[in-house]
Amino acid sequence: MKKKLLFSIESLRIGGAEKSLVTLLSKIDYKKFDVDLFLFNYSGEFISLVPKEVNIINKDNDYKFFSAPPIKSLTNLLISKKYNLFFTKFIFLLILTIHKYILKKEYIGWKYVSHFLPKFNKEYDLSVGFLEKKSIYFSVDHVKAKKKVGWIHTDYSKIPYNYKLDNHYFKELDFIMTVSKHCKEVLMQKFPACNHKIKIINNIVSPNLIKSMANEMVKHNIEKSTDEILIVTVCRLIPQKGIEDAINACEKLGNQGFKIKWIVIGDGPEKEKLTSLIKNKGLVKQFFLFGSKGNPYPYMKMCDIYVQPSHVEGFGITVLEAKILGKAIVTSDIPEFREQIQHHENGLTYGNIDELVSNIVKIIKEKDLSLKFMRNLENQQFDNSIEINQLVKII
Question: Which of 31, 197, 254, 348 shows the smallest number of beta carbons within 10 Å?
Fold first, then answer.
C-alpha cells in the first residue's frame, strides 16, 4: 500500500524554499507514495513545475480572503456573507496594528489566521510543514498524521519570531528539518529541548534540470559590448538580500572606470526604494531590476560574475545553482555561504562593500582565477537528491 504524504506551504511564488519543494516533489517515487500539496494561496510561478502526480488540494479556500489587502479582505468577506470571518479578520487587523506600530513586535496572530484554513479528515503517514511559522502551525493543528515534520529554511536568530509560540509547536513535531549546519546550530541553541529531533536536509537541486533550463532562449533588452562585465544576482527584493550594497558597489566600480552591467532577477517590497536609489545614483544604464523570472538560469549562465550579497540566508540555493553552472562567484561572508564557498578555491567571499568591489575587480583582472574556479567546480558533486532518503527513513 502506498504511503500518504502531505506537504503544506503558503504559495509557490519564486523563492528558495518554494524551488526546493518543487524539486523535491519531482524526485519522489510515485509508485510508493501518494502525495497531496496544500497551498494557503493557490498562486506562484512554480505551480507549473509541480509534477502531475501531485494532488493540489483546496485550490479555493477562505485564506484568499485573509491574505487580501485589509479593505479588500473585509469588503469581500461582507459581500460573501462570511460575518464570523469578517469579525475575526477585523480583530486580527486591530491587534496587528497595535503590535506593529506601538509594541514594535512580531505578530502572527495564528489563532485568527487558523479560522481561515481547513481541517483535514484524511490521515497521512507524514505531514510536512515546508516553511517556518504558519506552515508548521497548520500541520500541527489541522492535519491528522502518524508523523509530523517542520522545515526551517532560514537562520532562525535573524528573523522576527515568537519563541513561546514556536516552542509550543516544535514540541509537537516528530522532526525539525533545516537546511544548513549553521541553521541547525542556531535552532539547537534556541530550543535545547528539541535537539534530538533537529536534522539537516540540504535544499534539493537537480543539476540536469538546471543545465537544461539554462540553455533556453530568453528575450532581454541588455546589449553588452565585449569590454563590459555582466554581473547577475538572483533574489527577492527585501532588505536581508543586500541589494542596496550591490548598487553601491556598482557605483564604486563605475567610478574606478569599469564598464559594468548588473542584472537582478527577483521582485519584492523593496523594488520602489531600490529603483529610486538606482536613479539617484545615475545607474539606470548600469543596474537593472528585471523582476521575477520562472527560469533565471539563462541569465545566470550568460553572466561573467555571479554575486550574492545577502545579509541573511538559510542555505542560499542560488549560490549552489551558480556553482552548478560553473560561474565565478562572489558572496557575502556569512556562515551559510562559508559552507558552500571556500575562499579562493571555488569563489570569493567579502565582509564589506569595499571588499565586494575588490573581489569583483580581482576576477575581472585575473583571468586565470575564473578558470581555476570553473575547474574546481567541475570536480564537485552537486546532485543531492540522495537527501530524499532521509525523508523516506522518517516515514
Answer: 31
Whole-model pTM: value is: 0.87
Is 90 exceeded by the pLDDT of residue 294?
A: no
Q: Are the CB atoms for 270 and 239 separated by under 8 Å?
A: yes
Strands (E), 189-280: 198-200, 229-234, 260-265
pLDDT in tens, 121-175: 899 999 999 999 999 999 999 999 999 999 999 999 888 888 899 999 999 999 9
Q: Which three cell numbers stand for residue 133?
A: 511559522
How high is the pLDDT of residue 267? 93
What are the tens digits of pLDDT across the range 24-77? Answer: 999 899 999 999 999 999 988 899 899 999 999 977 789 989 999 999 999 999
Paired residues of 231 in beta bridges: 262, 305
Tell me the HSE value of 368 on the side-chain side, using a 13 A CA sphere: 0
CB-neighbour burial class of residue 264 (10 A; exposed 0-12, middle 13-18, buried 19+) = buried
Parallel, antiparallel or unpaired: strands 144-152 and 198-200: unpaired
User: At CA 194, angle to CA 190 and CA 196, rounded to 5?
Assistant: 125
What gap in Å lies between CA 362 and CA 287, rounded to an integer?
20
Q: Which three cell numbers stand for residue 126?
A: 507524514
Give the single-character DSSP code of 130: -
Task: Indicate the pLDDT class of residue 385, thresholds 50, 70 and 90.
Answer: low
Rounded to the nearest 10 degrees, what angle do helices 163-172 and 134-142 cross at?
A: 50
Distance CA 379, CA 58 (A): 44
CA distance linking residue 224 with residue 278, whole number of Å: 19
